[in-house]
TrEMBL record:
Organism: Pseudoalteromonas aurantia 208
Taxonomic lineage: Bacteria, Pseudomonadati, Pseudomonadota, Gammaproteobacteria, Alteromonadales
Protein name: D-glycerate 3-kinase
């Protein structure tokens, strides 16, 4: 094990087998990236990573980034979460379209045009700025804390819970998928609006991604367990976080599209990685 790998595992609190588990993903990317560069004469490359809440997509993104940097490549990492709208902006959406849009999470609650412009600037090899979102405060960090990248990197890793996802077939929207939708979206206006957003500007963003990795958690029940673990870690770092009941309520906003991802992304992604209950990877 290399020194930087040991430091990464220690910082993230990961077991030693993480290196072994992630190696096939890194090998796949190296082969994919090399082929793409030969075909396109070394154009900038955007890698997307999709995974449910708590799946470890952010950890994988940063591990791949560190590994690729060790190979001499320059990397930037951003999350779709970093593009969340402020509470004030979401409040306007809630008044215009549906009260549930006051809560961050679903397509429609991101500054999606900013995300598109950011990736386009990267693709054009121009300077760009990556926003950052403070989940403990539920609002974007002040712009002075955003990351400005003057020299565009070789690779941009763009991770997020619905990255690469296509809109749902309309027939899937007919019935609520959980208590939240059954009680607060009785006419289906919320889920139809979310689906319309996903079908529009989000597809423009996703079209800029060169290859997509999908971390398939296989069951939605794991999302609650892993999201609870994330919240505990957040509390340890910042002293703030959601209660178990708040987590249970919060993940219902993500349930519909997470389940749709499980049904559709294994075939649509460029690399599908199944995960077991202990977060271990298996390439399929």
């Amino acid at each position: 094990m290399k020194k930087w790998q040991y430091a990464f595992l220690k910082k993230q609190g990961l077991p030693a087998h993480y290196i072994q588990d992630a190696e096939p993903i890194l090998s796949w990317f190296n082969a994919t990236y090399t082929h793409a560069q030969v075909q396109s004469n070394r154009l900038p490359f955007c890698l997307g990573i999709n995974g449910a809440q708590g799946s470890g997509k952010s950890t994988l993104a940063h591990y791949l980034a560190r590994s690729l940097e060790a190979q001499g490549l320059s990397i930037a990492v951003v999350s779709l979460d970093d593009f969340y709208l402020s509470p004030e902006e979401r409040s306007i959406l809630a008044k215009q379209h549906h009260p549930l849009l006051a809560t961050r999470g679903v397509p429609g609650t991101h500054a999606i045009k900013l995300a598109i412009e950011t990736v386009r600037l990267f693709k054009a090899q121009k300077a760009f700025t990556l926003p950052r979102f403070d989940k403990s405060q539920d609002r974007p960090f002040l712009p002075k804390y955003w990351q400005t990248i003057e020299v565009p990197p070789d690779i941009l890793i763009f991770e997020g819970w619905c990255v690469g996802l296509k809109s749902e077939p309309l027939e899937r929207l007919c019935h609520p998928c959980n208590t939240l939708e059954a009680q607060q979206d009785t006419q289906g206006r919320y889920r139809r609006y979310v689906n319309q957003c996903l079908a529009a500007d989000y597809q423009t963003l996703f079209s800029l991604i060169d290859k997509l990795v999908y971390l398939n958690v296989q069951t939605f029940e794991r999302v609650y367990q892993w999201r609870q673990q994330q919240e505990q870690q957040l509390k340890c770092k910042s002293g703030k976080g959601m209660t178990e009941q708040e987590v249970s309520q919060f993940i219902q906003y993500f349930e519909r599209l997470t389940r749709w991802g499980m049904a559709s992304l294994p075939e649509q992604s460029d690399l599908s990685v199944t995960m077991d209950s202990t977060h271990r990877f298996n390439l399929t």
